[in-house]
Write a structure and sequence with these properties.
Oligomer: single chain
CATH architecture of one domain: Alpha-Beta Horseshoe
Number of helices: 11
CATH class of one domain: Alpha Beta
């Protein structure tokens, strides 16, 4: 900047030293806003670091509103809904004689049957013309129904979106209840986040879409029941950091791609029988695995020997099926576990018989977690004591001798005081020398009025007294029978939060 003009700064005596002049910051606001209008939203926000005159200026780069959000109420005819949608879009977007306006985001929510394919195409083309960075399309009920839809069949009247949608600055895409097709050899250099919920798309369409997005860092697939085999091994996703698959019921084959930056992998659904973690050994920090289990037998999977070798893992959630796989394999094989950096462990127990308790003990023995600080155990909701029903069938497992020296918080939900539950409580209290808080939360009871009541008061006082008198390795250990605050929730508790 000094080449276009200089200011003088006195440094002592009569000596003066030239200093650079920030002529861009001295420009009138209208010109600086014009500069910001040419930048993507993220880059415009970052200009606040240039000087105090740039801070928060990005918020005024376009006249209000900078986002368009349309939500059509249920009921009414399709023609009326179209008219309302068109009028609101044109009014909010300012499409008139002054020309189109840039918008940061466009959100459209409607019910099945309210819009035609031509209406939806018009909205998608509008977002492309306005160079929107966020696009959210959501269909509720009718032809776009989500969670309760049938299998993987496309329903009559289901509207279609073709990928790519056309906006040259699109960074975040969220869709629900629509059919999605993807063209070959497309390229969307700006797209970073994709969320698909109850979307009808094929395995091939998903691969084409991912292949078109070299900057993709977050992929979230939920209730996409057409998907069978999710495999990006021949695609390449070098920037992928978070990958989530929830209740895509037909998906039994899935390969986590060779993604050097992948930090989070979360899966809930049918049992995975393929090589799922081969490409993420060195980078994965958060892992969530929950499966209803195979109907018959135990299919081949690399799960047992892959999980203990994830050396950078800090948060791990396992259901009792996955826990059984890992525990049974590591107990027999001669291998070294690398879970030395694990800080949080969450176990989703579908049962609490002797075999389930043995799996917990076996895992803690063969996969030592010396840095473990937080342990969450979600117990089954059944009221019968599994130990009483199965104690003659499975031999009991001796608990590990140590390994929980840094555990400071433990929480057991659906606690009923059954024999194996009490065994686990006693073990935690005896072996956790740093334990500060132990929460034992009784199951919730559904009432006919639709209310939910915590059954903590229904635990017998005698049982509470027995627990409070158990031996404790930590003099600071406190036992609570009421629901804690949000800070004591497991990290992966948001996996089933809908977008």
């Amino acid at each position: 900047m000094a080449g276009h003009g200089e200011k003088r700064r006195r440094t002592g005596g009569a000596h003066e030293e030239p200093v650079e002049e920030d002529r861009i910051s001295d420009l009138p606001d209208v010109l600086r806003l014009q500069i910001l209008s040419l930048l993507p939203l993220k880059s415009a926000i970052r200009t606040g670091a240039l000087s105090s005159r740039w801070r928060r200026l990005w918020a005024y780069r376009w006249p209000e509103p900078s986002s368009v959000s349309i939500r059509l109420p249920p009921g009414g005819g399709a023609a009326g809904a179209v008219a309302v949608a068109a009028a609101r879009a044109e009014a909010l977007a300012g499409i008139d004689r002054r020309g189109r306006r840039r918008v940061d985001g466009f959100s459209l929510a409607f019910h099945g049957g309210q819009l035609t394919q031509a209406d939806l195409n018009r909205c998608v083309h509008y977002t492309a013309a306005c160079e929107a960075e966020d696009l959210h399309l959501r269909v509720d009920g009718g032809a776009g129904a989500g969670r309760g839809s049938r299998g993987g069949t496309r329903r009559p009247g289901m509207l279609t979106v073709q990928f790519p949608v056309g906006s040259p600055l699109l960074a975040r895409l969220s869709m629900r209840g629509l059919n999605l097709t993807a063209v070959n050899n497309a390229m969307v250099a700006t797209l970073e986040v994709i969320h698909l919920h109850s979307v009808f798309l094929t395995d091939a369409a998903l691969r084409r879409m991912v292949a078109a997005c070299p900057r993709l860092r977050e992929l979230d697939l939920r209730y996409c029941r057409r998907l069978r085999r999710v495999d990006f091994s021949n695609v390449g996703v070098p920037n992928l950091r978070s990958f989530t698959v929830v209740d895509c019921s037909r998906t039994t084959e899935l390969r986590v791609p060779v993604a050097p930056r992948l930090r989070s992998f979360r899966f809930s659904g049918a049992f995975l029988s393929s090589n799922i973690l081969s490409g993420a050994k060195g980078s994965l920090e958060h892992l969530y695995l929950c499966s209803g289990g195979p109907e018959t037998g135990l299919p081949t999977t690399n799960l047992p020997y892959a999980v203990p070798r994830l050396s950078n893992l800090t948060v791990l959630t396992l259901c009792s099926i996955a826990l059984q796989y890992v525990s049974s394999f590591t107990a027999k094989a001669v291998m070294e576990s690398n879970l030395h950096g694990l800080r949080e462990l969450h176990l989703l127990m579908f049962g609490m018989a002797n075999s389930n308790l043995a799996d917990i003990y076996s895992f803690l023995k063969t996969c030592p977690c010396p840095q473990l600080e937080r342990l969450f155990v979600q117990l089954p909701t059944n009221t019968g004591d599994a130990f009483t029903e199965n104690f003659l069938k499975v031999a009991e497992e001796d608990p590990p001798k140590g390994g929980l020296e840094n555990l400071c918080l433990a929480k057991m939900t659906n606690f009923k005081g059954h024999r194996n539950e009490m065994q686990l409580v006693g073990f935690l209290l005896r072996k956790s020398s740093s334990l500060n808080k132990l929460f034992l939360i009784a199951p919730k009871e559904d009432h006919s009025q639709g209310l939910h009541k915590i059954q903590s008061d229904m635990l017998p006082d005698l049982l509470k007294k027995e627990i409070l008198h158990l031996e404790r390795a930590s003099a600071n250990a406190q036992i609570f029978f009421s629901e804690p605050d949000a800070q004591t929730q497991p990290l992966h508790s948001e996996v089933f939060v809908r977008f």
